[in-house]
Structure formats: C-alpha cells, structure tokens
C-alpha cells in the first residue's frame, strides 16, 4: 500500500496479507478479534477514511432494465447515507448503461466517439438522479462533470473535490473522463488516484470475482483475493485493463462486492471480509 494510507494497510490485515501488517493495524483497530462464523474484523470504526464507490447504471434501473427505478435509487442512497454517518468521505462514479453504452449493440452502427459522448451524458443523468436521492436523505452532495455544463454541475477541479469531501459532502464524478475510448472503470480509477482514496469499492450484481460468469457457468471458481497481474493475465472482466493498470501503478486496492445484498457497502467499509480484493 502507498505510505500514508493507514486505512489501506488496515484492510491488508483483514485480508491476511502479512503478520507484520497484522500487528500494526491490529493495534490501531484496538485489538479487535475474529467473531467466529465469518472471518471479519468488524468494529464501529471504519477501515477507510476516504473511498470511491463505483456503481453501474444498471444498478439504478433494477428490474425494469432501463432508466432509473425510483425505489431502487432511494434504497442505494439510504445505504450510502448510512456509510456517510460513519464519518467516511465518499466519492462516487456511476455508469450510464441503463440509458446508453457506447460499446453496446445499440451503438453498433454509430461512430465510436459520438457513441461514447452519449454514454458520458448518460452518466450525468444518473449522477443528478443520485444527487437528488442523497439530498433527500439529508446528505449534502455535489456533482462534478468532466464535460463542462455549468448550469447543472460543477467542473471537475481536484482541490475543490477534496475540499468538498473534507467538509463532509459526497462528491459524484460524472461525464466519464471527458474523453472517448475510456470506460467508467477508468473514470473511477483516475479520480480515485487524484483524490487519494484508500480504496475503490466496485458494487456489482455478483459477490466477487470468478474465473467465469457464475450466472452462466456452474462451478465457476471465486477468487477471495487476487493480484492486479493475475487479473490482467487471466483476462478477468473485473474492470478494463486500463483501469486495473492504473490501480496497479498507484497501489490502489479494489474491492468487488454484491450491491444487491442490503448493507454490504457498510460491511465492506467496516472491514468485513466479503467479496473479492484486488491488490498487489
């Protein structure tokens, strides 16, 4: 982990990454012991100070498959609000696949640049919807867009984003990277590195990383912990290779977990060992 990231070192403890780290972080956590049934160091003290939460657009559509499902987005906002009450600084990147995806079948006959720009605008729609839902939970939220649209969102300014986080506001990064040919996975990895997040928490519809799609392949093997290089070598569809490489170069851990199980965001933040960890 990068020096100066005690939360990242603490999470290394939770995933059994070394006895020396265990000793340092165990003392910091107040000697919390394993509860027994699940391997976990659950306390009321968050394992992270600052996180970047990556949500897919499809997560906001729920079962309707398109657009934003009202009950679902308020449910997600409620979970984020619970984490916010723990004192964790939260940045969010949300995809746009519930409206438009630049590499999807619907964009097959389109120019890739135009299709990607449409996908970026879809992320802004989702960011504004999530901002509204969070503020109804009493959580002050700012949307920063990589594409300038001053009437609806702030431009992305790193120092301003960090200041918002320090003041206890949630910051939603929209508009991707502002450039075509980059996915929202890269759009999560890049600002996470810039704001010095302790980890990226990627919320998905499965409970971790598998060597095949567990919804299609019986007996798919789950990885509880895996290195960046293994993800790249095995071609696992965790995040795109650009995003994984960026996290690898900056020693930024990624935790993949199931968003559909209520309370999982809080469990990860509090140090429970769920999902899969990607680290060095």
Task: Write a compact overview of the structure shown.
The chain has helices spanning 6-14, 19-28, 57-61, 70-85, 112-136, 158-166, 184-194, 228-234, 241-249, 264-269, and strands at residues 50-55, 89-94, 141-145, 154-155, 170-174, 199-204, 209-210, 222-223, 225-227, 254-258, 276-279.
Account of the 3D structure:
The strands form 2 sheets. The protein has a 9-stranded mixed beta sheet, sandwiched between helices. Strands 7-8 form a two-stranded antiparallel ribbon. Helix 4 packs across helix 5. By secondary structure, it is of the alpha/beta class. It is built from 10 helices and 11 strands. The protein is globular and about 50 Å long.
Helix content: 25-40%
Helix/strand-derived class?
Answer: alpha/beta
Question: Any idea what the CATH superfamily is called?
Answer: Acetylglutamate kinase-like
CATH class: Alpha Beta
């Amino acid at each position: 982990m990068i020096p100066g990231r005690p939360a990242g070192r603490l999470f290394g403890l939770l995933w059994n990454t070394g006895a020396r780290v265990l000793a340092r972080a165990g003392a910091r956590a107040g000697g919390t012991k394993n509860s027994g049934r699940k391997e976990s160091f659950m306390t009321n003290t968050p394992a992270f100070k600052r996180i970047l939460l990556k949500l897919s657009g499809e997560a906001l559509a729920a079962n309707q498959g398109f657009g934003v499902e009202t009950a679902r987005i308020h449910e997600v906002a409620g979970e984020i609000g619970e984490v916010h009450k723990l004192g964790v600084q939260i940045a969010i990147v949300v995809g746009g696949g519930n409206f438009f995806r630049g590499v999807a079948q619907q964009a097959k006959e389109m120019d890739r640049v135009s299709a990607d720009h449409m996908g970026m605008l879809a992320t802004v729609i989702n960011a504004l919807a999530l901002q509204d839902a969070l503020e109804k939970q009493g959580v002050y939220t700012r949307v920063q867009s990589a594409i300038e649209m001053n009437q609806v969102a702030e431009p992305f300014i790193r120092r301003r984003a960090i200041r918002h986080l320090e003041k206890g506001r949630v910051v939603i990064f929209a508009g991707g990277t502002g450039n075509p040919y980059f996915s929202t996975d890269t759009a999560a990895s890049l600002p996470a590195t810039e704001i010095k997040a302790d980890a990226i928490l990627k919320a998905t519809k499965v409970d971790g990383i598998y060597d095949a799609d567990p919804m299609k392949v019986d007996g798919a093997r789950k990885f509880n912990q895996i290195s960046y290089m293994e993800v790249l070598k095995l071609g696992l569809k965790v995040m795109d290779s650009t995003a994984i490489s960026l996290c690898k170069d900056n020693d930024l851990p990624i935790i993949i977990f199931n968003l559909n199980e209520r309370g999982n965001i809080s469990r990860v933040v509090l140090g429970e060992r769920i999902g899969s960890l990607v680290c060095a």
